[in-house]
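Sequence, please.
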């Protein structure tokens, strides 16, 4: 761990007070190129409810705003679909849970909101309950409040309150975790390896929506170092899917 983990630049841009939530309304001018943002988001599988035609299941709420949900957890998406089939079988039996990358969601949102001939579609991200509980607990210890959004967990420490970076091949990345457990494990390991900075180590919470908004409005090369780390449940889902596909091919 000593050779792989260290403190990088302060990168004060990332903070829990940044911007308002990004819910699919994409500005016309992006600070980072669209391809860079999609590449960063592409590594995160998320789950949507799709129709027989392959499009997202859309609900109309107040003011005729059209919304679709994007689940961070496959289990949550399955649970939503089960309830839909119970209460609205005419709809629920015609839709399914579909895994798609967050990058594709972003690309779809960008295209949808830039087409003047289409009505704007709002993407609502549904966080895992366990992540919300962790975020509330961490924020409460700091006298802060959870105000919605998908919590991401980051680690700061060292003499300059810098962000944790991890050496990945020839590149340093700044990991942002979708759940607290893995970053808590890193924290405990670092406390043993670097006891001199124990008091400065702290886990912070920042909404995913703010990070995406930041990518859209700030021109900073350090942002390209961000790596979103999916929850363990999602990693297991993808691994099981790959094994199933391999078994079917053999």
């Amino acid at each position: 761990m000593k050779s792989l983990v260290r403190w990088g630049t302060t990168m004060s841009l990332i903070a829990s007070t940044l911007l308002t939530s990004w819910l699919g309304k994409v500005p016309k001018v992006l600070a980072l190129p669209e391809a860079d943002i999609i590449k960063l988001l592409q590594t995160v599988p998320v789950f949507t409810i799709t129709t027989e035609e392959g499009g997202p299941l859309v609900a109309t709420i107040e003011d005729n705003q059209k919304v679709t949900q994007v689940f961070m957890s496959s289990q949550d998406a399955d649970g939503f679909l089960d309830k839909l089939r119970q209460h609205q079988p005419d709809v629920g039996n015609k839709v399914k849970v579909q895994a798609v990358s967050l990058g594709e969601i972003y690309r779809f949102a960008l295209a949808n909101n830039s087409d003047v001939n289409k009505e704007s579609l709002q993407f609502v991200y549904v966080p895992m309950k366990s992540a919300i509980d962790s975020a509330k607990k961490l924020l409460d210890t700091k006298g802060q409040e959870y105000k919605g959004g998908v919590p991401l967990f980051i680690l700061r420490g060292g003499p300059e309150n810098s962000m944790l970076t991890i050496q990945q091949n020839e590149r340093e990345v700044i990991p942002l975790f979708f759940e607290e457990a893995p970053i808590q494990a890193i924290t405990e390991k670092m406390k043993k390896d670097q006891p001199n900075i124990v008091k400065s180590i702290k886990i912070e919470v920042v909404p995913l929506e703010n990070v995406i908004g930041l990518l859209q409005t700030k021109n900073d090369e350090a942002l390209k170092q961000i790596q979103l780390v999916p929850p363990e449940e999602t990693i297991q889902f993808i691994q099981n899917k790959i094994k199933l596909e391999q078994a079917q091919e053999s």
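The domain at 5-249 is CATH 3.40.1350.100 (Trna Endonuclease; Chain: A, domain 1).
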